């Protein structure tokens, strides 16, 4: 991606919604913060980049493709300590989080985790996040690094409102240097982690979380991830993050992987990247994330933007996020135009690139509702030429989550 | 290549996009392999470089063009090469094709003005040649130069290596 196209894209987002521009963080003088694993990255030849204000490795010695394939066949360790980790507690904490999201936390089991979205009054997505329910009055929240300021502002604002109503909500935003987050992803993740914990990981299903110990240090292990593979996210005290990472890396099957592989893996898994595939002007229904609007919440219609979102669920949105699979040719990347086979410009790619697993380019983007059906032939425009593509279901690559169905 | 590389080396990602920086080690690697290959394979003329990380070898008024080791390393595994059509006329620093990797797309800029007389079909079929053999089997196209004066603007290997060490690229 060239500087030129980056700026074009920035402009586009600016036009689409001023607030979105903030998430793109286009600032030369942006502060670069370190996670608690910074030194480990440097010692392992991590090629460091500034990713929304955080110094993180795009890759290590291996190419992104090799790292991607290693994750799919073995397992990789990713530093995701730049993400915003928060504790929300107090007897009204469930109500507090429900008032900002579309999740049903009442019916979430203790130890269960839910993917959800913060929405605004128009139904637009302010961020995507995972909420884990430790108890009825204690939740653990992980949201995007690029939305740190917006998320904090949103939560503090709502907390103040609830306090004025006499409600009890305490929020603790964890400092990334004091609390690390590492993701262990891939088919070897469970056998590797099992050697380090006393609990039986076969009992920990997908989207569940447990507080336990590794090497006598307290950790939180959540069975989730951003790759489509079985895997875990381990929240660990900053001073223990390195030791625990190194213990995991002692297993020959496990390699460090960077942001590059994380992006190509999540694309194959059909996951959205905030600021690209979703933003404040896109609703969960348009983003094909309708399933995130919990049944109880639909009936109660009491989440931000409910009016717009429920109307879209009922009558269908104008546009929708779809997957695209291309033939032999260049990948269609963000901002590539999507055309009907008759040549009418109807949509836009929001993420795209080569799929190392499929060996051909894949993309996701938005098209009007009449073109969303799987198998619809379309065209994508790349550097002035058009290339054939098919509308495809996502995920592009079969996921391997550890669910009850096993 | 320039735009990609500039971004790569300034260590500032303008968006959440995955654009990257290579390490100092890759520069050293680049330097060594350049020297080694230069001695082994080429004798007709010295390889010249642009500040956009293309190289050109001249044989008469025909230049063979590729991307430097530094550039291929920064780009990562190339999965698609869009090369200029034979017969097309290109201008110095004009965009004449693109290389795509998992990481990024990068435009190919012509080092000199002229007419494209051949493109490397092997690279179109197997873009990985650009990574495995950027100075030999991974050449991109041949150009019949229309203005030999433009050669003065290109860097020799030492100048290019100095350039890589500087913060300018």
From TrEMBL, chain A:
Its EC number is 2.1.2.10. This is Aminomethyltransferase. Substrate binds at residue 233. Belongs to the GcvT family. It is an enzyme of class 2 (transferase). The glycine cleavage system catalyzes the degradation of glycine. It comes from Ceratosolen solmsi marchali. Residues 37-295 form the GCVT N-terminal domain. It comes from the Eukaryota.
From TrEMBL, chain B:
The keyword Protease does not apply. InterPro entries: 2-oxoA_DH_lipoyl-BS, Biotin_lipoyl, GCV_H, GCV_H/Fam206, GCV_H_sub, Single_hybrid_motif. GO terms for biological process: glycine decarboxylation via glycine cleavage system; protein lipoylation. Binds 1 lipoyl cofactor covalently. One of its GO terms (cellular component) is mitochondrion. It is found in: Mitochondrion. Signal peptide: none annotated. The H protein shuttles the methylamine group of glycine from the P protein to the T protein. HAMAP family: GcvH (MF_00272). This is Glycine cleavage system H protein. It comes from Ceratosolen solmsi marchali.
């Amino acid at each position: 991606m060239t500087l030129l196209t980056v700026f074009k894209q920035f402009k586009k987002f600016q036009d689409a919604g001023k607030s979105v521009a903030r998430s793109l963080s286009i600032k030369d003088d942006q502060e670069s913060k370190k996670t608690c694993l910074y030194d480990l990255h440097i010692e392992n030849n991590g090629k460091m980049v500034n990713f929304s204000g955080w110094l993180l490795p795009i890759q290590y010695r291996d190419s992104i493709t090799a790292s991607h394939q290693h994750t799919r066949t073995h397992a990789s360790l990713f530093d995701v300590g730049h993400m915003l980790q928060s504790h929300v507690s107090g007897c009204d904490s469930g109500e507090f989080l429900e008032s900002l999201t579309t999740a049903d936390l009442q019916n979430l089991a203790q130890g269960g985790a839910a993917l959800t979205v913060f929405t605004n009054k128009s139904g637009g997505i302010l961020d995507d996040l995972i909420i884990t329910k430790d108890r009825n009055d204690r939740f653990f929240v992980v949201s995007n690094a690029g939305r740190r300021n917006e998320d904090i502002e949103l939560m503090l604002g709502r907390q103040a409102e609830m306090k004025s109503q006499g409600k009890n909500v305490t929020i603790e935003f964890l400092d990334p240097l004091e609390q690390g987050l590492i993701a262990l992803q891939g088919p070897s993740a469970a056998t590797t982690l099992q050697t380090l914990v006393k609990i039986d990981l076969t009992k920990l299903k997908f989207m569940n979380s447990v507080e336990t110990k590794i090497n006598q240090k307290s950790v939180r292990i959540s069975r989730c991830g951003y790759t489509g593979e079985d895997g875990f996210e381990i929240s660990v005290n900053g001073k223990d993050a390195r030791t625990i990472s190194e213990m995991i890396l002692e297993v020959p099957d496990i390699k460090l992987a960077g942001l590059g592989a994380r992006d190509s893996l999540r694309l194959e898994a059909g996951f959205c990247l905030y600021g690209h595939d979703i933003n404040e002007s896109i609703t969960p229904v348009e983003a094909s994330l309708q399933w995130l609007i919990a049944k109880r919440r639909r009936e109660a219609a009491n989440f931000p933007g409910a009016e717009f979102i429920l109307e879209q669920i009922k009558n269908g949105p104008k546009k929708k996020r779809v997957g695209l699979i291309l033939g032999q040719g260049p990948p269609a990347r963000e901002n590539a135009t999507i055309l009907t086979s008759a040549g009418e410009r109807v949509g836009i790619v929001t993420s795209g690139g080569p799929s190392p697993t499929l060996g051909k380019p894949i993309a996701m983007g938005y098209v009007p509702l009449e073109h969303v059906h799987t198998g619809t032939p379309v065209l994508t425009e790349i550097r002035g030429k058009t290339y054939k593509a098919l509308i495809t279901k996502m995920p592009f690559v079969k996921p391997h989550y550890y669910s009850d169905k096993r | 290549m320039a735009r990609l590389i500039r971004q790569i080396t300034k260590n500032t990602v303008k968006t959440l996009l995955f654009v990257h920086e290579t390490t100092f080690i890759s520069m050293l690697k680049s330097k060594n392999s350049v020297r080694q290959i230069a001695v082994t394979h080429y004798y007709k003329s010295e390889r010249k470089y642009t500040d956009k990380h293309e190289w050109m070898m001249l044989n008469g008024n025909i230049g063979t063009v590729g991307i430097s080791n530094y550039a291929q390393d920064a780009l990562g595994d190339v999965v698609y090469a869009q090369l200029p059509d034979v017969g097309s006329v290109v201008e110095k620093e004009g965009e004449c094709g693109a290389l795509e990797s998992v990481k990024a797309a990068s435009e190919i800029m012509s080092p000199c003005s002229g007419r494209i007389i051949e493109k490397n079909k092997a690279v179109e079929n197997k873009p990985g040649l650009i990574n495995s053999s950027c100075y030999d089997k991974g050449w991109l196209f041949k150009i019949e130069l229309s203005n030999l004066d433009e050669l003065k603007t290109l860097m020799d290997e030492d100048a290019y290596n100095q350039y890589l060490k500087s913060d300018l690229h």
